[in-house]
Amino acid sequence: MQSVKPFSLLTEFDISLFQGGKHFRMYQKLGSHLVENDGEKGVYFAVWAPNARKVSVTGNFNNWNPGAHVLLPRWDKSGIWEGFIPNLEKGTVYKYHITMHNGKGLDKGDPYALRWETPPNTASMVWEFDYQWHDEKWLEHRLEIAGKPKPWSVYEVHSGSWKKLPEDGNRSLNFQELAGELVPYVKDMGFTHVELMPVMEHPYFPSWGYQITGYFAPSGRFGTPEEFMFLVDAFHQAGIGVILDWVPSHFPGDIHGLYLFDGSHLYEYADMRRGFHPDWNSYVFDYGRNEVRSFLISNALFWLDKYHIDGLRVDAVASMLYHDYSRKEGEWIPNIHGGRENLEAISFLRDFNEAAYKNYPGIETIAEESTAFPAVSRPAWDGGLGFGQKWMMGWMHDTLNYFKRPPIFRKWHQNEITFSLVYAFSERFMLPLSHDEVVHMKASLLYKMPGNEWQKFANLRALFGHQWTHPGTQILFMGGEIGQSTEWSHDRGVTWELLQYDYHKGIQEWVRALNLLYTAHPAFWWHAFAPEGFAWIGGDDTENCVIAFLRKGRPSDKVLLVVCHFNATVLEEYTLGVPYGGVWHELLNSDAPRFGGSGITNTDLKAVKKESHGQAHSITFRLAPLAVQIFEGQDLPKKKVRKEKTVKAKPGKEKKK
Q1: What is the pLDDT of residues 8-20, one digit of tens each?
Q2: Is 315 a catalytic residue?
Q3: pTM of this prediction?
Q4: pLDDT tens digits along 301-342
Q5: Which of 284, 485, 541, 616 could staple 546 via S-S, CB 3.0–4.6 A?
Q6: Where are the domains of the chain?
Q7: Which of 156, 201, 315, 364 is catalytic?
């Protein structure tokens, strides 16, 4: 046996926090770290494996010999094994060989490894970051506007298939190539943020990154950790925020990963009625085990800290909140009160959100949560889960159901397109048209739309117009913005060749125009989550399938009138009430020729003092087919100034009332 020298980065306070589920920087202590010990340079290893009989480090430096470098168990019964191995360097490839109590061995990757081998290889790598950031202005501005209203128009991207290179074996772009192509594209399209589907290391590419083994490492398929930092930095320098998908809900059973890590159910619930996920054939984290809570929250803060990430979209929150999620009666265990809620997961999510916002003001956490669980986006101190936003899955389901119907039938289903406004302000909602809606035989967004070719594109433009103007924020999956005609495939990627056709270019131009209009007008986002930013003009014209509403910002911002016409007819004279007189200008019309429309547009309109829809004034305009039209009043209403009266007092003096 070669020498593993005693050494530790861990203090008693670290152990206390770790065991209490409150150590949120555990990546600074566990894992592998380049250090100097008594004048010798080498690597300190530390791993939590409380039920192991023995733990050793194997690697390319000792011919993967389990007997060569055996770690030392800590005296404090924390279950942590540690030790210093001299003369090892950055890039050393290693695993932990864990001897179980039955004498059999397991070869595991390091849960805290900063880098892993590129799949299908499965070993961890000793790593130390070496990158000079250039996003100081972005981070300073992010802090300055923390807690203030801001636009959120998000482009969802799967890094491995945004663009493929057929001339190079159909390979994916790497992180540096994405910085050169994806960043300027997102900037040109006017999106404020990009959301990257999980970039953490995962063994199975078709899992899209949602089956993670290396929680602290970007996937080696696309480059080094520093090259991923370069990509994030490039986004920030372009003024674009970066959101990462984060998956604390489940993990795969790959033998080198977290499952049965030390021969016992360490990271997952031991009872498979809680510990196994039937939907994804994966395993559920044990949120009641404090060391697991420390691992997960440390991981969340790690990406915000080391990679300057601006937000985390938490995957499958509903599956975490309920013990009976996707389980039949008898396949799940109630909580201590006999209920279905996972009380440990609820407590964990509150701790996670509080830690994230406390340590990194200006970031955002977003929940993919599909149930009516209350107060998901209310602060934890106010009884909520503490998320900044929640995906509005109800809007997505109702809206897509509505748009799938031929226009002739829509008048009997107007409630599907208006119901979301009943509860729109109960949470801080983000409206999603995500990757989940264009896979598994659900059809692309374009081919969900009814009608002939022209009607399909007109319907898709109307769908996007409704999404962008509805209260809340919005997210669109890549390919939707060009009207991709096929379902998304991780092997094929976005079919960019469609942009040679005018209708597809029109969809792209429409999304670009929506983003530019949205970010330029605070009426769309100043009160995105509050009823003060919205007012109905009319939602009951079922015969024509018209809904109309106002979007309002600050008192100094001009009010916007949004008219959504979901029928294929043209009405040359359509009247709606408006809140004040003067000229109303058509800012944007999805039926304009440049977007592929038929050209039913309007010149400036003079409001007349004629009551309509509960408003003192009204405008009459051309109502375009299957279109969203946005009007802006050019003159703010004049405020009435109260005149002061004077009364006579003593000669030479006046008193004011």
Answers
A1: 999 999 999 999 9
A2: yes
A3: 0.94
A4: 999 999 999 999 999 999 999 999 999 988 999 999 999 999
A5: 541
A6: 12-125, 531-633
A7: 315
